[in-house]
Structures
1.
Amino acid sequence: MGASMSRKHYRLEMPGRFAKSLETMLVAAALCGATFAAAHGQMANAPAVPVAHEVAGHGQGAQSGNDPWWKHAVFYEIYPRSFQDSNGDGLGDLNGITERLGYLQSLDIGAIWLTPVYPSPLVDFGYDISDYENIDPQYGTLADFDRMVAEAKTRHIRVIMDMVMNHTSDQHKWFLESASSRTNPKRDWFIWQDPKGYTADGKPIPPNNWISGFGGSAWQYDPRTKQFYYHEFYKQQPDLNWRNPEVEKAMFDTVRFWLDRGVSGFRFDAVPSLFEDQKLRDNPALGGINAQGDPILEDTYTNNLPEVHDVMRRLRAMVNHYPGDRVLIGETYLPSVQELDKWYGGSKHDELQLPMDMQVGFTNKLDASLLRQRINDAETSIDGNQPLFVFDNHDNKRSWDRYGDGVHNEAIAKVLATLLLTSRSTPLMYYGEELGMSTSVPTRKEDVKDPIGITGWPKEKGRDGERTPMQWNGEKNAGFSTASTTWLPIGVDYKTVNVRVEEGEPDSMLNWYKTLIAFRRSNPALRNGTMVMLDKNNPSVLSFVRKGVDGGPSVVVAVNCTGEPQTVSFDLRAVGKSISAKTVITDAPSLRGSSKLKDIALPPFSSWVGSIQ
Ligand code: GLC
C-alpha cells in the first residue's frame, strides 16, 4: 500500500482516494445481527443528562480504573487567532483563551490543543516557527501561557501543544546558520542539494520532481551557496534533515522544554513527512494537474517512510519518563487503517498513543455502509489501540458544509456529533463545531489571508473559511473582539449561530453536544463497553451497541443517514435478552419517551440513543 497518500491532500481531493483503498478491504469480525424494515418516522428532542465526573473534583483529568486520562477526555482544538481577543487588536490571544475556560469547562472538555503560538513570521500562521521555546508577542507571553495552563488545571482541563518537527521557519536561527555557508556546522540540519543541472540560459534545475504541498517545486534555490533546499510546504518552511542525529536531539529538547512547563502532550504536525528518500528518487506521476497547477504525484518518496517509526519510538520512550500519562497525538493522514496501526507501534503500543484516524471523519458523505466499515476498521484493525476520530480541523472546510446537504445541515451535524461521541474512539472537536459554525469562504482574492488561497485562487481558496472567529454572542464581532476589524471576518450567521443564543435553546447544536458529552462521560457502557455493529447490511441506518460493563445496561445507537424516513428493529439477543430500550437522547420528538426495540421510526437524518432495559 505504501505511502501513497499524504496529509497535504487536504480538502476534497483526499477522501475519494482514501475511499478507493478502503473499498478493497474486508470488514472484519462478524458481530451481531439485526433486522430492519423501511417505513416511516418523525422527530424529537434531547433530555438534559447531568454531568457526572468519575472522580469528584478531578473531571476528565482523572483516571478511571487503569485507563489513561486521554482515553476518556474530550479533546478540543483551538485556533488561538480566532478564539478570543483580550486586548482589542482583532486577533485572538492566550489571555482570551484563559477568559473562556469557563465555557470549555461547561462543555466538559478534558484537553485543549492549541495550534502554534510560538514566535513566527506567520507565513503559515504559526506553522513556521522561528523560536520553539517562547510565545509570539501577538498571543502573549510565557507568563500568560503559564497562567492559562494553571487556570485550565483548576478547571480540570489539560493543555496540548502543537509541535512542528518537520520544518522550521526560514527565519529560525538554525536555518539562518545553515543557509549562511556550505561549511556551516548546521548546513546538514536541513536538506541541501546541488542543482540537477542548468538550463540553456543558465537557470539551475531542481534535484528532482518533488512538489510542495502548497504549490510549485519543493526545492528553493539559494543563489548565495548555489544549492537548493527542500521544503514540503512554503519556501519559508525549510524541512529539517532528520537523518542528522543533532536535529533529533535539538527537537527533543524543545519537546522537553514544554513538558517541563507542564503541558500534557503534543499534537505532532505533518509528522509522517519527517523523512525523504535518501536517493532523491522522483515521485511517480498519477496523471492530471492539481488546483495549484502542479502535476499530481504519488508521495512515495516524501511521506510515511519507515524510518519515521524509529523516531516515534524514541520520542515515546523519552516522554514515558514524565509522570501523568503525557499524550502524543499525530496529524496522520494515511492511506489505510493498516498504515495507521503502525503509528501506534501496532501490538507493541510503543509509538503515538493517539495518531488521528482521518478515515472516518473525512469521508465527506453520510454513507451508512462506508462509515460502518471505517468505524469497524478502527475497532478491529489497530491492535486494541485507542482510536481518535475527528471530523473538523483548521485545514478542511467545516463538516457542516462537507456533509451538509444545504437543507438538513443541523440534523446531519447532529448525526456526526452522535457518531463522534458515542463510538469508542476518543473524540476530537474543533472550536465552533459544537455551534454548527459554517465555512466562510472568501469571495474576493484580495481578502484571502492563507497563502494557499492566494497562490491557488480561484480553484483553491485557502483555509480562511474554517478559521473565522468563534461566535460567542450576537453583539459586535460576535463577542470575539472589540476591534474595528478582525483578522478574518465574522461568519455572517453569527446573530443566530452563537454560544449565548444556543445556550438558551434546548434543541440547539450546542445543547446536543453538551448532552452527548455528559452522557458519554458518565455512562459506563459508553466509556468502556465494547462496540458491536448492528444491522450490518443496512445501507441507510448506521446502528451499534455499546455493551454494558459489569452487568450494567448496554447502549444502542441508531442514526438515519438518509433524507428518507427509515424504520429499524433490533434483535439484541447477542447482548442479553433485551426487549426494550429507553430513549435517552434523540432529536426525533416522536421517539421521545419511546422504549421500543422494534419498528423504531427514524425521521430523515435523525439520531437516537437508547439504554437497553
Ligand atoms: C499541518 C497543519 C497545517 C500547516 C501544515 C504545515 O498540516 O495542520 O495547517 O499548514 O502542517 O505546517
2.
Amino acid sequence: MSQFFHGVALSPGIGIGSVVLLAPMAFEEEGREVPDAGRSAELERLERALDVSEAALIRLEEEATERLGPDKAALFGAHRLMLRDPMLVDALREAVSEGKDAADAVVAKTAEIRALFEGLPDPYLRERGADVEDVGRRLFRALKGLPDPAELSGGEGAPFVVVARDLAPSDTALLDPAAVAALVTEQGGPTSHTAIIAQSMAIPAVSAVEGALERFPQGACAVVDGLRGAVVVDPDETELAEFRRARERFFLERDEAEILKDLPAVTADGVGLGLWGNIAGPGEAREVPARGGTGVGLFRTEFLYMGRGEPPTEEEQLGAYREALEALAPHPVTIRTLDAGGDKKIPYLASLVGPEANPFLGYRAIRICLDHPEIFKPQLRALLRAAVSGNLWLMFPMIVDLDELQAAKAQLDACAAELAAEGLPWARPAKVGVMIETPGAVLLAEELAREVDFFSVGTNDLTQYLLAADRMNPKLKRLQDPLHPSLIRALAAVAGAASSARIELGMCGEMAGDPRALPLLVALGFRELSMTPSRIPWVKKALRELEARNLEGLADVALKASTAQKLQRCLSELAGRR
Ligand code: PEP
Ligand code: MG
C-alpha cells in the first residue's frame, strides 16, 4: 500500500525511481591510542590521507567546472583550503604526535571546528559547518580506506531516488542527473547545499522527511514531488499515472516559462498585474524571477521555525529576510509573520498551545504571537531591520478583527521604538497589510482597510472557514472549490472595501494560480496574484490572452451565479469566445 511522507520542497520537479538508501557512515572516535613506537608511522598515514583527499578535491573541482561551471566548482576549491588550513592540519598533527589515532583525531577536531562555525550568528556561515564536516569525513574515509559516496553517480538500470540523512556538498555535486531521479533527505534546509546543487542540476529534492532511512524499503518505488514537498513510497497504478501526468505538466511549464519569462504580465489590451511567487524560505526567492515573477506575495515564515528545537533567533531571521529582500530588490517581498498551528505544527510550541480538539479553530498564528512577545518581537525586530535591504511588505495572518490588527501594529511600533533607541539600522516596511482569510475579516473588511496598505486574500483558509470544510479532508473536495458562490461573494465584498479605501488588493491562496479564475479576479479588481512559482507561466500565458475590456459586467454575472457549476459554465463560455 502506498505511503505518504511530508517534507520541505528543496528543488522543483517530480522524480520517480527506486530507493537507494545511503546509510550514514559511523563518524565516531574509537578511542584507540597509538604507542610511542607507532607515532611517526601514524603521522605519515595522516599526511598520505591529506594528500589523497587533496588530489580527490582537485579532481572534483575540475570535473565540476566542466559539468556545473566555475561558480559551483568553487565549493571544492574552498574545501581544499579548509583541508589545508593550519587550524585543522596543525591540530591533527599535534593530536597524532601525542598518541591519538589519526582517524579519531579527525573526528574530534572536525567536531570542534564545526561547533565554532555553528556558533556564529550568520545563518550562511553556520551552514558552512556542514562543509567542515564534509572535509573531515573525506579525510576519515581516506584513512579508513572507505569508498566515496560519489561513486553513486552513473548507476546502471532504472533511475534511483537517493535517500540519506543529509547529503554532503561533494556527494550531490557528483551525482549523475541522468541516473538520479530525485533526492530525499531527513535533514538540511532550503539554504543547504543539497538544495542549491539539486536546483542547479534540475534534480527534484525534498528534505525534512522524518525517519526516511528507517521507513523507506531499499529498492521500493518512490515518487518525489519537489513542487509540494512530498514523497509517496510504493504508489499504486493510479497514483503513478497521476504523477507521470504531473511530471509532463512540469516539463511543459518549464518550457513555457523559458518562453514567457521576460515578457510583461499584461492583458492583451495592456492592463498590468503583479504575478508573484509564494515561497517558504529565502533559497526559493530566486525561483520567482526564474519563472517570470516580479515579486513575492507570500513568504511563509513558519518554515524557518520548523525542523529545529527552538525558534530562530532575531539574527537568524534577519539573515533569511535580508537574503530574500536582496534577491528580489527593488521588487516587493511580502513577508507574513508566524502562522503556526492548524496544519503547521511546530513541536516546541506544543506546550504553549496545549491539547486542542479543533486545531484549525484553535490557538494559532497571530493569536499565539500577540500573547507571546518573546516569540513575536524577535520576528518583528528582524523584519524592521531587514526592511533596509529591500522592498518589504509586512503582513499579519489569521486576523479576525480590528483589535487583533491594532494590537499587532502596536507591537510593530514598539519594536521600531526599541530599535531606534538602540541605534540599530531599521526601516518601516514599504507597506503593512493583512491576510483576509477568515469570515470575520471579510465582514469587517471596511474597518480593516482603513488601517492597512494592502489586503491579500488567503483563499485556502477563507474557503475552509466560510464553508466549514477542513482543507485537509479529501472527502470534502466539492466544498474546497474557490468558485463556490459564497466565496465569490466574499471576494467581491473584500474587493469593494479595498477599492473604497484605495488600498492594494492581492491574493496569495491557491486560487491565484488557477488560470480558470483569472478573468474573474481581474474583473473584481485583484492586481497582485501570488502563487507557487511554477504556476506563474501558466497564469501569465492566460493573462496575455485576456482582453480586460471584455470583462466588464463579469463581476455582476458571477455574483448572480447561484452555484459553482453555473459560474464555471459562464467562465468556460467566456474562454470559448476568446
Ligand atoms: C491561505 O490560507 O490561503 C494562505 C495563502 O495561507 P496558508 O496556505 O499558508 O494557510
Ligand atoms: Mg492561511
